[in-house]
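Researcher: I'd like a structural prediction for the single chain below. Treat it as a standalone chain; there are no partners to consider.
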Amino acid sequence: MDELEKTDRKRSSEYAQILKEWMEKDYDKFLRDFSSSTHPFLHELRVHVFRRDKKYEEGCVTKDEKKQRELFFIAYKENLILEKYFTRTFQKSEYEWSKERIKETEDSINKSWPYVSPVSHGLFASFGEKTMWLSIFAFLTLLVLLNIWITRKLCH
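Model: Treating it as a single chain, here is the predicted structure.
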């Protein structure tokens, strides 16, 4: 979470500009160009925005009241994630919801229901550089030891 906050603080203007430039462009191309491995913050933010907007749109067109509440609930909770974890970038982007839209979704849902976003399941669970190098070193050490063991078995 510290890394998330630091990225949001340091790169919010830059990332908000990228989001703005890509608003009318292909979503799938955005995900390819800003992959989770090369741009985890930006990728994650955009996927939350997509899920929020998709569920909201589906909620607006459904005639089933129960389904609408469910869809608006997901959209509302995704919006909360965006506000909480991507604060500065989200506020500077053009994806922030109006107070009216927030109120509209709040009024039709039970905000206290629990929610776990499938998008956030592994939120920034990627390895840090130090962990990555330690893992590589450990793996290489294991390979060397395995090689020594096999060589000794074959020679005896």
